[in-house]
Specification:
about 220 residues; alpha/beta; Rossmann fold; seven-stranded mixed beta sheet; about 40% helix
Length: about 220
Amino acid sequence: MKSEDRQLLKEGAHEFGVKLSEKQLYLFTLFLEGLCSWNRRMNLTGISEKREMIIKLLLDPLVALPYLSPSGTVLDIGSGAGIPGLPIKIGRPEFEVHLLESKAKKISFLRDMIRKLGLKGIKAYKGRAEKKADLPSLFHFYDIVAVRALASLKKTISICSSYLEPGGLLVTFKGSSVDQEIEDSKKLIEELNFKISKKVPYSLPETQGKRYLLILKKGRN
């Protein structure tokens, strides 16, 4: 990672209230190298330019960290290139993270990254969230389910709800249509006993438009 790219990540994280150590910046550098290398061989992400990867894949998930507990269990559903689970794990090593992905090639990438980064307390599992009975290795419930670009909010809530402890958080990253998505999901949010805990507007460097961190809390029955 070039020094100016490293500075972009460090300062961007600082803007979100996240202080990255030298070790964490080194891990992000290794992750970026792996992402670029594997992406040339298979379609991990439609983003091919390094600086854009830093902003949209590495930096973006870090906006959630100040709003989460210091430790706990995290499930990243539809992890793909490891987003948001791997950046969340690098930024908050105390979390125990599970990455769930349905495509075998992407699982190979995730496991390769976990090994190369030397991360403990993180595993990648192959499977579909909709088929929970086929996933005995996962925890029954999680403190946090984090998703990025999985589906509409309504579908995301429907898929993720059964993985959350009462009091658990569903962490999503949304664009300008967030209010419409909330409106479309109102009935389901009520039925599944969720409440909107945080709706935080933010901007990414060198990127047009406002984004939103949307966190929903599952109520206790």
